[in-house]
Write a structure and sequence with these properties.
single chain, 254 residues, mainly alpha, Arp2/3 complex 21 kDa subunit ARPC3, two-stranded antiparallel ribbon, two-stranded antiparallel sheet, 4 strands
């Protein structure tokens, strides 16, 4: 259930604050992690659960942790879940997260209209751009795309999204609903979109590698749970050895 204000804009789920919602999604992600560690097989149900976690993260970043500029232009990190999902789970999962997440964000923020599918194209286009670029690059190199390749892909995907949104803005405002003009869309609005696209590209390039490193370790444990068990045993042995040394030290002092 969504609570809404007088204008019908959704505020929060089940009366919870934004912070509580964010903590809920983090808890859901942790729950998914524990579920994954219970089995070594990357089953379809588990992938769908993780897709749902990425969709939830997209929704939070898009609706609650974004900076609106005006005329449907905003600075946000909502593309990060799409990029990470595409990198780790593949193009089909990335497209799914992009489609579902962008639909929920559009529907709960602006409502459903004839142009809702158009405003979903940017998110879907980002997933397609990242996924296809990774596939082509790895096929040419015969190896993983690498961190430099990931950064470059993220930067160009942000500019690609800017181009898509500019075209969609023109169709929405000048052709379908006729509330804008060609000079606006390809004038100061275009400048604003280019600036926001450049800022987004820089911001994404700064956070993508740390995020990628964290999830690399996470997915490594999922695919190889025996490594997690070995790590836990090693930590336990290290603690036992340290306790023994402390005990021997105390005996010598006595």
């Amino acid at each position: 259930m969504l609570n809404t204000d007088e204008k019908g804009i959704p505020l929060r789920f089940f009366g919870a604050s934004n912070a509580e919602n964010f903590l809920f999604y983090l808890g859901a992600l942790s729950f998914c992690e524990e579920c994954f560690f219970m089995s070594g097989k990357f089953a379809v149900a588990k992938r769908l659960a993780f897709d749902a976690a990425f969709v939830a993260l997209y929704f939070v970043l898009s609706n609650y942790l974004s900076l609106p500029i005006g005329w449907k232009i905003k600075l946000t990190f909502d593309g990060l879940p799409i990029i990470l999902c595409t990198l780790f789970l593949g193009l089909p999962d990335g497209l799914t997260v992009a489609a579902v997440g962008s639909f929920l964000s559009q529907a709960t923020t602006y409502g459903i209209s004839a142009t809702t599918p158009l405003w979903m194209l940017a998110a879907i286009g980002r997933a397609a751009f990242v996924g296809i670029t990774v596939i082509i690059t790895e096929k040419i190199k015969g190896d993983k795309i690498g961190k430099v390749g990931i950064v470059l892909t993220v930067i160009f995907s942000s500019l690609f999204v800017t181009a898509i949104n500019t075209v969609v803005q023109y169709v929405d405002s000048c052709i379908i609903f006729n509330y804008g003009s060609l000079s606006q869309v390809f004038g100061w609005l275009l400048v604003a979109r280019i600036l926001s696209g450049v800022l987004s590209a820089v911001a994404y390039s700064l956070v993508i590698i740390p995020s990628y490193n964290v999830l690399s370790e996470f997915f490594g444990k999922i695919r190889h749970p025996e490594n997690r068990e070995k790590g836990e045993l090693k930590d336990s042995d290290d603690r036992d050895a340290e306790n023994e040394r402390d005990g021997e030290g105390q005996t010598v002092k006595e």
